[in-house]
Design a protein that fits this description.
Blueprint: H1 23-26, E1 37-43, E2 46-55, E3 61-63, E4 66-67, E5 73-74, E6 78-81
Antiparallel strand pairs: 1-2, 2-3, 2-6, 4-5
Length: about 80
Amino acid sequence: MDGRTYVVSGAGGKLREEIPEGFEAAHTTAWAAQAHLLLIEVDGEEARLTPVSGLLPNRSLHLMTSLTPGNEVVRPPIVVRQGLT
């Protein structure tokens, strides 16, 4: 929107497990009902967004997947490039 990419991550501590309504109106591309933090790596005109939901037993990051409105799995990282919407 207006040359910017807006990322809304998190539910303010309150998870809703119901599938959200109004995906198209909100320009939502993916969602997940899971607590997480968001790692963002910026390299020039590209940003890689990696949602992390915790640590695995071997202490590596447990990467969170999300779902599209069509119920397809989105695996991280999510790549955003400047000039693309």
